[in-house]
């Protein structure tokens, strides 16, 4: 193995509640909200998908114009007018008064799987004109972006807490404030979209806020095939400005060249959330044992839920533990070698990952790509 002047492996996000419906890129939620009142958001629609268990709520949208719905492109990507339906006219998600067939779906031409949620716009044209009532109305589009600090109203049928597995029946409402783009990036950004000058690596110790050493970054190298929609090719190498100085508490790890067999014991460490229902991060580095799950078994669980475990992914599980937000990019280790990079997990980070195994970027699959970038 080459001496590491600086190697840090990272990924996009655990997200995330950041992977579509079932992964960490899952659709959003109205956390801390209250039930909306009649007529409070008459433009709100439920965009439903026809899945394994029949029709179910997938995304929200807004009625506008004579017969249109504005929504996000990632909500309609891969669907047709026959696999989506629009319902509106009430607060109870299961008893909305009006269903309006879809005529056409327009995704923004600059939206694509590589856009990382940029240009995330779509317009759905309905067959029938929208009939206004006390519970149904259209909303005008803003022509200028509101200033930071402006009060804003959010409505939706998304999960009301991170650990919840069910959606609320009643439409939820929450008052928010607009956040300036630079502040938003500082709070929620990942390596993707950042320059080397904007990132710092800290290490040497167990306490997240008391790590002894740090280094600036000279280069960020994200895999050219990285796909934020499928969370495939989730590899990145950061080259540090300074050489790593080894000690009793600092060392480097060798990359595995062959994927470990099924049921191999593995070690997961990180400072990620210890519960899907909290936003707090632990001070001390956390550890849990895991067991490797074969890709075949992992796909039997995930493919019916709409997520494919590709050849660039490896799975691991524990009946009482899981990776979560903040563990992204961290190490999964077998026999003292790096076998996986924390990539994505079921929404809400359930403790029992035997039911929903956690996915990691498979180091052995991209050993050559990784090793040729290690300095």
TrEMBL record:
<dbReference type="Pfam" id="PF00089">
    <property type="entry name" value="Trypsin"/>
</dbReference>
<dbReference type="InterPro" id="IPR001254">
    <property type="entry name" value="Trypsin_dom"/>
</dbReference>
<feature type="domain" description="Peptidase S1">
    <location>
        <begin position="30"/>
        <end position="375"/>
    </location>
</feature>
<feature type="signal peptide">
    <location>
        <begin position="1"/>
        <end position="18"/>
    </location>
</feature>
<dbReference type="InterPro" id="IPR050430">
    <property type="entry name" value="Peptidase_S1"/>
</dbReference>
<keyword id="KW-1015">Disulfide bond</keyword>
<dbReference type="GO" id="GO:0004252">
    <property type="term" value="F:serine-type endopeptidase activity"/>
</dbReference>
<dbReference type="GO" id="GO:0006508">
    <property type="term" value="P:proteolysis"/>
</dbReference>
<dbReference type="InterPro" id="IPR018114">
    <property type="entry name" value="TRYPSIN_HIS"/>
</dbReference>
<dbReference type="InterPro" id="IPR043504">
    <property type="entry name" value="Peptidase_S1_PA_chymotrypsin"/>
</dbReference>
<keyword id="KW-0645">Protease</keyword>
<protein>
    <recommendedName>
        <fullName>Peptidase S1 domain-containing protein</fullName>
    </recommendedName>
</protein>
<dbReference type="InterPro" id="IPR033116">
    <property type="entry name" value="TRYPSIN_SER"/>
</dbReference>
<keyword id="KW-0378">Hydrolase</keyword>
<dbReference type="InterPro" id="IPR009003">
    <property type="entry name" value="Peptidase_S1_PA"/>
</dbReference>
<keyword id="KW-0732">Signal</keyword>
<keyword id="KW-0720">Serine protease</keyword>
């Amino acid at each position: 193995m080459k001496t590491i002047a600086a190697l840090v492996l990272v990924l996009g996000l655990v997200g995330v509640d950041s992977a579509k419906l079932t992964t960490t890129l899952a659709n959003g939620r109205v956390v801390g909200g209250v039930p909306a009142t009649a007529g409070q958001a008459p433009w709100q629609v439920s965009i439903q998908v026809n899945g394994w268990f029949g029709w179910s709520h997938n995304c929200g949208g807004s009625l506008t114009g004579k017969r249109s719905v504005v929504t996000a492109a990632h909500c309609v990507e891969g669907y047709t007018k026959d696999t989506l339906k629009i319902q509106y006219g009430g607060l109870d998600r299961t008893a909305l008064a009006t269903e309006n067939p879809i005529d056409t779906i327009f995704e923004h031409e600059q939206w694509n799987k590589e856009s990382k949620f940029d240009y995330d716009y779509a317009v759905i044209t309905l067959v029938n004109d929208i009939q206004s009532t006390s519970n149904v109305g259209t909303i005008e589009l803003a022509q200028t972006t509101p200033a930071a600090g402006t009060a804003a109203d959010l409505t939706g049928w998304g999960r009301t807490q991170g650990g919840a597995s069910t959606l609320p029946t009643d439409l939820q409402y929450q008052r928010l404030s607009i956040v300036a783009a630079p502040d938003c990036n500082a709070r929620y950004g990942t390596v993707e979209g950042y320059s080397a000058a904007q990132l710092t690596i800290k290490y040497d110790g167990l306490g997240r806020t008391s790590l002894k050493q740090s280094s600036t970054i000279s280069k960020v190298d994200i895999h050219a095939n990285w796909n934020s929609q499928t969370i495939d090719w989730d590899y990145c190498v950061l080259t540090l400005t300074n050489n790593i100085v080894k000690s009793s508490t600092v060392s480097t790890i060798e990359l595995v060249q062959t994927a470990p067999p099924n049921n191999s014991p593995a070690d997961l460490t990180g400072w990620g959330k210890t519960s899907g229902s909290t936003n707090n991060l632990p001070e001390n580095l956390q550890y849990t044992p895991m067991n490797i799950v074969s890709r075949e078994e992992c796909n039997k669980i995930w493919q019916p839920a709409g997520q494919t475990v590709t050849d660039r992914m490896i799975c691991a599980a524990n009946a009482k533990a899981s990776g979560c937000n903040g563990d992204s990019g961290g190490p999964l280790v077998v026999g003292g070698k790096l076998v996986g990079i924390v990539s994505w997990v079921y929404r809400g980070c359930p403790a029992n990952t035997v039911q929903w195994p956690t996915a990691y970027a498979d180091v052995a699959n991209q050993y050559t790509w990784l090793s040729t970038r290690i300095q």
